[in-house]
Amino acid sequence: MQGQNHGLREEIKAYWSERAATFDLSPGHEIFSEAERTAWQKLIRKHLGAGDRRKALDLASGTGVISHLMDDVGFDVTGLDWSETMLERARTKAMQRNRSIRFYLGDAENTMEASASFDVVINRHLVWTLVDPEACFREWLRVLKPGGRLLVVDGDFVNVSRGEKIAKQLAALLEKAGLLKLDPMHTPPQMAERHKSILARVHFSNGARAETVAALLESTGFEAVAVDTDFRDVHRTQTKNWNYLKALARGLQHRYAIVARKPVSNVGSANGATSAESP
Fold it and tell me: Cβ of 37: how many Cβ atoms within 10 Å?
């Protein structure tokens, strides 16, 4: 099983490295308007508060989209990704935007960061890809300061509701008939098949439902775990990037943010992290 997991993890790493070239062309990955940027900043402040130069770790940081949002609201940001191709683009983007974000090569399951060294850990669209989420959650708990917060932004990309399925099917028919504009394709068909194959073999192959992820975070040692499914502001700003029916389908997806806290009293938690109060 460990060998199988290792092989799948390497396959996931290779997939995202190849996707790096077109990653920022896809709506939902990069941000294409100031209104969308503001909506994401609002979501971050809602769950994490103002940055105040607190230390934040952005896991699976990719080309740095979330890292930049965290920097926008005042966090001292470190981005970690295991694809050097993604990191090259992230560093270039940070330099072009004159940002002081640090980007390092690293693994979300074994960050190599010191225990109790971050006030915040954040990730977007990482959890659904995890092969061993319990190991990852223990690691995230370890690197957080007591009282530090975790923010997970993710979704269930497996279970498609009846409404979403109808909207997608109708969009495909109308596009084929020339009655609806074609959305740009940023993922070649062969990459889409690889994505489907990977999705079928990760831990959450049956869908990363918010309640399942939240329960696993609690069992790992996090407390005050809360789920937020209100993505209306973000979705409203993204709709112009798709035709009407595809925007409708996306709005019907099960997307969520989960916020959780590392206990201040850390007795018995993973790896013996310090029990000192966070600043």
Answer: 16
Residue 20 structure tokens: 């790096």
Hey, what domains does the chain have and what are their CATH numbers? 2-266 (3.40.50.150)
Residues facing 257 on adjacent strands: 153, 228
Closest CA to 122 of 209, 51, 60, 46: 60
Strand partners, 152: 123, 258
User: What is the reported pTM?
Assistant: 0.89
The residues of the chain scoring below 70 in pLDDT are 1-6, 184-186, 266-279
* pLDDT more than 90, % of the chain: 74
**Which candidate, 69, 66, 54, 64, places its Cα nearest to that of 149?**
54
